[in-house]
Automatic annotation (TrEMBL):
Family note: Belongs to the eukaryotic/archaeal PrmC-related family.
Descriptive protein name: Methyltransferase small domain-containing protein
GO cellular component annotations of the record: eRF1 methyltransferase complex; nucleus
PROSITE patterns for this protein: N6_MTASE (PS00092)
Compartments reported by the entry: Nucleus
Lineage: Eukaryota, Sar, Stramenopiles, Oomycota, Peronosporomycetes
GO molecular function, one term: S-adenosylmethionine-dependent methyltransferase activity
């Protein structure tokens, strides 16, 4: 089963259409903030967690809106939404689970790696930006 969330209603609709177009039948998308609608029922069961957060540094007031700026508005260092999810990764992933996240240098990836390491994770860069 594929579960998805997005705070932006247009993005949620596009994700649903993309799933249909690609023949994905077990796809559930909910317009919500992060994973609040799925917790705690998915704790310890997530095999692959993909997180494309709003990572652009912006004023904090822009974070959490439902407009188009929700796609990029990450607040201080682009980390306000990222930092809310990081402490939850350990309880969400299954024993074989993996976590992929998009970050930019302004997000201070070394700090993110240190935070994840405290929970026993190793962060490995998979690609570099254009």
């Amino acid at each position: 089963m594929f579960l998805a969330t997005d705070i932006n209603p247009l993005a949620a609709g596009v994700a649903q259409q993309t799933a249909r177009t690609n023949g994905v039948e077990t796809f559930d998308i909910v317009r919500t903030d992060l994973l609040s609608c799925y917790e705690p029922r998915i704790q310890g069961t997530v095999d692959v967690l993909l997180f494309n957060p709003p990572y652009v540094p912006t004023p904090s007031e822009e974070v959490g809106s439902i407009g188009i700026e929700a796609a990029w508005a990450g607040g201080l260092h682009g980390r306000e939404v990222i930092d809310r999810l990081l402490p939850r990764i350990k309880t969400l992933l299954s024993p074989r689970g993996v976590f992929y996240m998009v970050v930019v240098i302004e997000n201070k990836p070394d700090e993110i790696a240190d935070i994840l390491a405290m929970d026993g994770f190793q962060m490995t860069p998979e690609g570099e930006g254009v």
